[in-house]
Amino acid sequence: MFPSEWVIRRRSWLLGAAAILALAFPFVVRSYILSLGIEVLIFAIFAMSLDLLLGYTGLASFGHAAFFGLGAYILAYTAIGLTPNLLITLPLVIAGAALAALAIGFFVLRTTGIYFLMITLALAQMLFSIAIRWSSVTGGSDGLAGIPRPVIGMGPLSYTFSSRESFYFLALALFLVSWWLLRRIVGSPFGWALRGIRENEGRMRALGYNTFRYKLTAFVISGIFGGLAGLLLSHFFAHAAPDNLYWTTSGQVMIMLIIGGAGTLSGPVLGAALVRLLPSFASAYTDRWQTLMGVVFILFVLFAPQGVLGLVQGLRLARDRRIPENRT
Asked: Does the pLDDT of residue 215 top 50, yes or no?
C-alpha cells in the first residue's frame, strides 16, 4: 500500500493522534524544543501566506518580508506605547498590513515575471533601509526591545500569556485559524480563479475576469497573514528587528515553499519545519551546518523541484502507471 493511501484510510485516527500530540507537546519536551516548535508554527503561517501568492496565483514575490516586518513593528509600537492586548493589537496589525499590501500591490501588480520579483525586492529593501536609518522611531539596527507579553480579555477577565507553554497554545490557535481560513479561501471559487490566473491569465481575462482585482485581493490577504506571523514573532522574542524586513527573510520563506512544495497548504508547513529544525539539529553535530543546508537545498532543486509533497505525488503516479502494465 502506498503511504498516501495509508494516510487517507486512517485520516481520522491520524488527526486524533496529531491533536493529542499537539496538546501534550509543551509538557513533554524541553524548553528549547518547545521554542523551536513555536518558531515552526510562526513561520508556517508566514510560509502559507506566501504560498497564496506563489503557489496558487503564480506571483513570485521576493519582498514578502515587508509585511512580516511591518506586522512586527506595528505590534511593537502598539504593545509598548498603548497596550499588549490582542483585542487591540491584532486588529491594528491586520489593518496596517492590509493597507500596506493594498498600496504596494496597486503598483507592483502592474508588472509580471522577473520585473514583479525585482520590484517587490526593491520595496522591501527600501523599508529595511528606513528601519535602519530612522533610528529615532525604529530603534535603528537595534530594533525595538522590551515588548510585553500578549494579553487577551478585559479587566479581571484578561489573561496574560506569560509562560512559554501558554504562548505555544496561542501560536497553535492562530496557526490553526490561519490554516482553516486559507483552506477555505483556496477551496472557494475565488481560489480556483487564482489557479486559473496562475495557469493562463490571458484566458481568464478573455472569460471576463478582472485579473488585476483578483491578484490584488490575493496580495492583500497574503500580506495580512504575513503581518500576523510578524506579530507572533515579535511577541515571542519581545523584540522587533529590522532583519525581519531584510531580503534574506523573504528568501528563507521562499526556500520553505520550494522544499515543502508550493500550491498546497501542507507543503509550507512541512518546509517551515525542515528549514527551522534542520539547522538547529545539524549545528549540534557539525560546524558546517550551513554547507549542509546548501547541499540539501541544491538536491531539492535538482531532484525534487516540486518539493517533498511533489516528490510523494510523483512516486504515487509512477506506481499507478506500473500497475496496469503488471496486470497486462
From this structure: yes
